[in-house]
Structure formats: structure tokens, C-alpha cells
């Protein structure tokens, strides 16, 4: 019924339809089992306040589909302009990280995306290459990604599943933030998103403390086992001496 090359255009057109027509359309979409990757072109365009029906059904599709949080999907989500009134990007990420395996993939991709943006100098919103056409699409900036991540920490930290903490404790994400802290060109962003960087530093310290505690515990167990083995050996030797 639907084709990948025309699906995005149909959905875009449906945004202007009456609510009843949209409901019928999305009922067909769900019945067809459209894969999540068909939605990538739509993600930057949806506005949850204006396109409530479509936004709700996209979230439902992500929840039902086999989640594949690849880099293209994350780029599309982060390409949305950050807004305190629009949590669509955050809602999508929350769905993508529900499973521990996909949570790690999302985290790795976020960390790698930040590293690539620093390496390419894609730091600020609207900071395109000199001489580029005004009509050319803006590159996804580090500022946009950090804005979404800060909103994510504000809405999703300290929850029961600790999924948000897992993202910011991920080694690739921590490496990216450490690079950002050493990069002079990122200084304005560090200042703008000071709360986000503070959260990451706290989680980094907690992760380091847990790792050190775990090592100490393993070391104590090892030394305890060694001591116990030594005592047992000495007792056996004493028995042999006594019997002889």
C-alpha cells in the first residue's frame, strides 16, 4: 500500500488533513507495519504542538517497531530546533533507550556524533561554511545536540530505570565531553550548557568511584582467599609435623 520513496510526502500532506482522516491514515500505516527508518525524513519536520496526531503515531510506531537507533535517525532527531515547549525529540530518545542493548548503541552514537562535530568545527547553530548558499541546508551543530541533551537531563534523570544515567556514564560519551572540556573553541558552549557539563562530571565521578570500589572489593576478596588458603596450608603442614 505504501512505498518508501513516497511515504514521507504522503505523511507531509496528511498533516493538513482533518483529524478523522489522519486517524484513518495512521490506522492503515500501523496495519502495514511500516519500518521506523521510513520516518527519518519526517522527524525534523514534525512539531508536536501543531501535528499532535502525527507526532503521537510516530512515537507509537517507534515503540512497536524493531528499534534501530542508527546515526541517521539520531541526526534527524537532533536536527529539530530545541524548544522547552516541544519534547518530541526527548520522547523519541526515551523510547529508543528502553532496551539496554539499544541504549548502548544510542549512547555510542551520541558520543561519536559529538566527536565528529568537534573535529569538523560544526559547533554553533547557523555556523555554516563561509561562501555557502543561504538556501543550502544547515549542518547539524554541536550546540543543537547539547541543547537536546541538556533538556534530556532535566526531564529524564533520577528515574527508576536509570537509562539517562547510563547514557552519560557511557565511555564514548564521557570521552566526547572530556574532549569538549579541553577544546578552547567549545568554551562558549561549555558556558552556555554549564548545567549539562556539571551533570556529566558528577556521573563521571560516580562511575569512577564505583569502579574503584569494585576493584577494591575484588582485591580484598582475592587477598582474603589467598590468606585463607595460606592458613589452611600451614595447618596441614602442622598436622603432618605432629603426626611424624
TrEMBL record:
Source taxonomy: Eukaryota, Metazoa, Ecdysozoa, Nematoda, Chromadorea
Biased composition (Basic and acidic residues): 234-244
Chain ranges of the Ints3-like C-terminal domain: 1-199
GO cellular component: cytoplasm
Pfam families membership: HEAT_Ints3_C
Protein name: SOSS complex subunit A homolog
Species of origin: Haemonchus placei
Region of interest (Disordered), ranges: 207-244
Domain of life per record: Eukaryota
